[in-house]
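ok so dumb question maybe but i'm new to this and my supervisor (M.) told me to 'just get the structure for Aldehyde dehydrogenase (NAD(+))' and walked off. so i did the thing. is this what she meant?? sequence i used:
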Amino acid sequence: MEMGGKCPTIFDSLSGDDMKVAVKRIASGKWGPCSGQACVGIDNILVEHKYASNLIDLLKKTIQRFYGEDMGKFKNLCKIVNKHHFNRLLNLLEDPAVAASIVYGGSLDEENLFIEPTIILDPRVDAAIMEEEIFGPFLPIITLDDIHESIEFINSREKPLTIYAFTKDESLKTQILAETSSGSVTFSNAFVLNECDNLPFGGVGESGFGRYHGMYSFHTYN
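this is what came out, is it supposed to look like this??
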């Protein structure tokens, strides 16, 4: 059974069009049609300090291009599923360890159960938003001295449902596959794994057990 879990994204050094494409895919994978309310949605980004500013700037531009600049006029993002989850997300955002770290977004419309895409830079790693599955439009960005530290960061937490990684470094890809454990790993894209019904899908450890899709479902539940 797939249980969910936090899905980190490793964002390595990219340049030019590669970076722009990666950011577009991250924006779609995070906010997409369900405003982050998906088990395989991007939960956080791990990036080196020196690339964080450029990443945030591109994310802001991409959000505005995809969804508009005025929260009240967003037409391509869904609402939060119900009042209970709206209040849960509100509590995450009002945590002082999070509120002081917002670099984009943060506006809420309680009457219409709407929260705009929100980027949070380096919240405390022990904050609730970094411990619980977000299941909403908040995107924490955690900065590192070296991208290889992302392996240690991931391994220090519960096993994710999936790991996303945007990198051209083949040795880093090999390291991610060899030294981490997750339900799946996706390189250079996001949110597409559960559309491949010929591939097994499921979690490991806290993110679930077994696998399904296609014949794998019959093998798991037989």
